[in-house]
Amino acid sequence: MSTTPTRGILTAAAAVILAAAAIGGTAAAQAAGTNGQEGTTSPSGTPHETDTALADAFNGVSRNTVWKQTSKLKLNFPTYHTEGIAYSQDHIFLSAVQITEPTVKYATPQGGYDRTPGKGIGHLFVMDKAGNLQKDIVLGEGDMYHPGGVDFDGTNVWVPVAQYRPNSSAVIYRVDANTLTVHKQFEVKDHFGGIVLDKQTGHLVGNTWGSRRFAEWDLRGKQLSTWQNPNFLIDYQDCQYVPNSKMLCAGVTNLPQTAAAGGTAATYELGGVAMIDLKTRSVIRDVPFQQWSTAGHVATRNPFKITASGSHLTMTVAPDNGEEGNGTEILTYEATVTPAK
């Protein structure tokens, strides 16, 4: 890799301290009400979540919801293959993978893998709100160079960096959104391509290759549970936490075309967004999203975040790679819905 980030390699004792600090930071973020999606503080000083605006508004989204593109922000630096996006008060964070040697499928699986590891560089781009690059944080180690979907908990940006192949391994990082200090939290077995922090439990929830399985860990990396994805409509690419103990995930499924449209060599991108209950582990609402980028990709192909102000929803996405179309553009869509009762 051309550069290396500042990394805090955790000892067992340091992990305990950092876990407590992360939980404390999350509680502080809830009390502060970051981005209008967090909770408030009770008279006793204990943070709790009361703002259900985003969940309520998304429950009003349907296939007939009218989304209008209201802005397009072109990024004027190399962005490679974009993966996840998150917003803090001062920064935009965009994860991306730079492939230097593509993976190659084996004729038959070798060592439990279906392809070679390939080579690449994982990036977490830090921008100001105008999209100007402020810092390029390089993440990953060894064969783990593929950042996935990211999430901001009010204090830290959580980033999984995995091998670029299923059934492999990943390392989970947290990046302080103010100081931009990088901390290696823990490593996990299997490819995890997305992550959120459940602010009610203080636990992390990640999704594997194709989002076919979810796992829950404490902040020291102890796996607490795992479950299969009950939904087969799309593969989730980027997720975010939603009060109370929910998450919104967006993604894409590549479907084969008819023979007249090119057959299996010409796939159709079906996009969509789903809200998942982290307590019951069920899909609450699942809707298609068929808006298209400059390069012709469905908008929910990779980076995705959404906010709500009453019944008004604002979605930001960045589906195009740096070398496609007009380069990576952050697209904003807005819609007004009738919130669920």
At CATH level 2, the architecture is 6 Propeller
Cα Rg = 19 Å
Biggest sheet overview:
6 strands, mixed
CATH class: Mainly Beta
Structural class determined from secondary elements: mainly beta
Overall spatial form = globular
Determine the N-to-C terminus distance: 51 Å
CATH topology: Neuraminidase
Strand content: over 45%
- For the secondary structure, the number of strands is 26
- Give the helix level as a range of percent: under 10%
Poorly predicted regions: 1-48
Order of helices and strands: EHEEHEEEEEEEEEEEEEEEEEEEEEEE
The tally of domains stands at 1
Mean pLDDT: 88
Work out the helix count.
2
Topology (SSEs and partners):
Elements: E1 7-8, H1 12-32, E2 40-41, E3 47-48, H2 53-58, E4 68-74, E5 81-87, E6 92-101, E7 105-110, E8 113-115, E9 119-127, E10 133-139, E11 146-147, E12 151-152, E13 156-162, E14 169-176, E15 182-189, E16 192-198, E17 203-208, E18 213-217, E19 223-228, E20 235-242, E21 246-256, E22 267-277, E23 282-288, E24 304-309, E25 312-317, E26 329-336
Parallel strand pairs: 1-15
Antiparallel strand pairs: 2-3, 4-26, 5-6, 6-9, 7-8, 9-10, 11-13, 12-13, 13-14, 14-15, 16-17, 17-18, 18-19, 20-21, 21-22, 22-23, 24-25, 25-26
Would you write up a description of this structure?
The structure is a single chain. The protein has 341 residues and is mainly β. It has a single domain (7-105, 115-336), classed as Neuraminidase. The protein is built from two helices and 26 strands. The strands form seven sheets. Strands 1, 11, 12, 13, 14 and 15 form a six-stranded mixed sheet that branches. The protein has a four-stranded antiparallel sheet with strand order 4-26-25-24. Strands 5-6-9-10 form a four-stranded antiparallel sheet, with no helix packed on it. A hairpin with a 3-residue loop joins strand 20 (235-242) and strand 21. The chain is globular, with a radius of gyration of 19 Å. The chain starts with 6 loop residues before the first strand and ends in a 5-residue tail after the last strand.
